[in-house]
Write a structure and sequence with these properties.
mainly alpha; two-stranded parallel ribbon; 6 strands
Length: about 300
């Protein structure tokens, strides 16, 4: 802690920025001896878990509904500032799309929103759209599913929070596959390991201390079904299971052949035969096939 204190002083001297230790806290994890002496060494206060850091709860159950109480409170404070009697329906739609849909994005990008929270926030947005006064509930003229549909499909383009939440969590899987040199990606990779190819982490099975990434990892299946691979050297794309050939996976196009494939998890490079002038695909099967059984396969390639 003394070394940390010196580092902070050197940082102030070099950068000219002052660290406000009055707003800083030391948070013990488990049993920490001489906690008060450690805080005195740095000059900060002693805090307790659960707490929050940069708006993210620390030490609290990530599935707890109470984590989202602040979001709902901000919703209601913002609605209190708007004089709804003087806002047209079009104005309300604009405010819902620009403000009420974006306020919970920070938390939704890291935590899975509980269903009960999603229903409460959707109700607030519905009542704001159709209500005329703060305490009045008016009939809803259009089904909320229609309101949340795309404008091209006759909807109003309001983003459904549960769908937006899944998309934001899924984005971390996309970043994991692409930002291979990023520090956060290396930390996650070391902690959970990688599947072959390095596109995803291994499935998270532990029951404690892994909830944050475990929920994010669950959305990896959503990404797998929508991603099309551009083949490079063939060492990171599965021959049968990945979408690399005209946006389809071969196990879905040729299920009967896939059932008898000897190496269902083979990489592209493993099944490419370089013999001849152009090379040829050479998958192996557990039995021989008649010509009519592989006719579609040959025509496809």
């Amino acid at each position: 802690m003394a070394h940390l204190s010196w580092l902070l002083m050197w940082f102030e001297a070099i950068s000219g920025l002052r660290i406000n230790l009055d707003k800083s806290e030391i948070l013990p994890v488990g049993r920490v001896e001489n906690l008060e002496a450690l805080a005195l060494e740095v000059g900060c206060k002693v805090g307790r878990l659960p707490n929050s850091y940069l708006g993210i709860p620390l030490g609290a159950n990530h599935k707890s509904v109470a984590v989202w109480d602040g979001v709902e409170e901000r919703f209601r404070r913002r609605l209190a500032l708007w004089k709804r009697n003087y806002i047209s329906k079009g104005g309300r739609i604009t405010l819902i799309r620009s403000t009420l849909s974006s306020m919970p994005i920070y938390l939704m990008s890291l935590l899975r929103m509980p269903r009960v929270v999603s229903l409460r926030l959707e109700k607030i947005r519905r009542d704001f759209l159709w209500g005329e006064g703060a305490l009045e509930r008016k009939p809803h003229l259009v089904n909320w599913d229609s309101v949340c549909s795309d404008i091209r499909k006759g909807g109003l383009g309001v983003r459904r929070l549960s769908t937006l939440n899944r998309a934001l969590l899924c984005k971390w899987n996309w970043r994991f596959a692409n930002e291979r040199e990023a520090l956060w990606r290396q930390v996650i990779s070391r902690k959970f390991g990688e599947e072959e190819g390095g596109w995803y982490t291994r499935e998270v099975r532990e029951g404690f201390g892994v909830g944050l990434w475990k929920e994010i990892r669950k959305e990896g299946a959503l990404l797998q079904n929508k991603v099309v691979f551009s083949v490079g050297n063939g060492r990171r794309v599965k021959f049968w299971n990945d979408n690399w050939c005209e946006n389809f996976s071969l196990n879905n196009l040729f299920p009967s052949l896939y059932a008898f494939a000897s190496f269902k998890e083979a990489w592209l490079v493993e099944l490419w035969d370089h013999s001849g002038d152009e090379g040829v695909w050479n998958p192996s099967f557990s039995r021989s096939f008649n010509d009519w059984e592989v006719e579609g396969w040959r025509d496809y390639f």
